[in-house]
Amino acid sequence: MTPAPLAARLSIPSGPLFFPVTAFGPDGALDLAAYRAHVRRGVEAGAAAVFACCGTGEFHALTPEEFQTCVRAAVEETAGRVPVVAGAGYGTALAVRYARLAEAAGADGLLAMPPYLVVAGQEGLLRHYREVAAATALPVIVYQRDNAVFTPVTVVELARTDGIVGFKDGLGDLDLMQRVVSAVRTETTGDFLYFNGLPTAEQTQLAYRAIGVPLYSSAVFCFAPELALAFHAALNSGDDGTVRRLLDGFYRPFVELRAQGRGYAVSLVKAGVRLRGLDVGEVRPPLHEPTEDHVKHLAALIERGHALLEEGE
Description:
Helices cover 49% and strands 11% of the residues.
């Protein structure tokens, strides 16, 4: 594996990894001013990296032109302070196209999402991600979830592939992840990054960290950066009391609320950003907005989370 600047910058993150939502106006078009403000606020709040136009950013709903516009805006707003990683997905040809658009927009890396629709074998998956990695000079993080599930043997081959620097898990099979980490550790040389990519990853990060997965995405950072930062700091410093208090009083209830609607891993987060004063618009179909009662519940949870921080002072 060839060391990459992105890997070095992400290996010991100074804060949560930020997955901004993509802002849309009342007419459904991109609201670039709101998007820029959202990215800027996240970086100023202490994000360690910006993952633009990924799952929380509704990659599936963006045209290639909108995608490149958003990635370029994220690059401009971060101004080199933190790395920008862009999503890339669909079939191989389109994933390569998105990868090249991201490179042209100035991104520092790629999060390669599952191929569209098909359930492929290991040989086909390996070929797909190798072609994406070979398409640009950008380092690639492979995202395991849904129809892209890998054996440890395949992840070893991914780790041996030039340009692939990390593996993000959105599946949640801890036994499989432990075997992946062990196989890569024993069968390759050099560093390889691992990420917990489950929705509301804080809820499972204690378990992931124990098996050698130190990095995680934080959707909560989009709308409650104070809570995400406090959890991140407590986890890294061994402050178990704060970790438990936030898990019990905020994260578990939030996960239970998120489970009450399909697509809430995105639409509920977007509602949270609006609750905090930035109008980023609604989600695009086929996602739908959370109910009014669920939004009220979310507002109460955010208040409860801040009260928990005050209790710990």
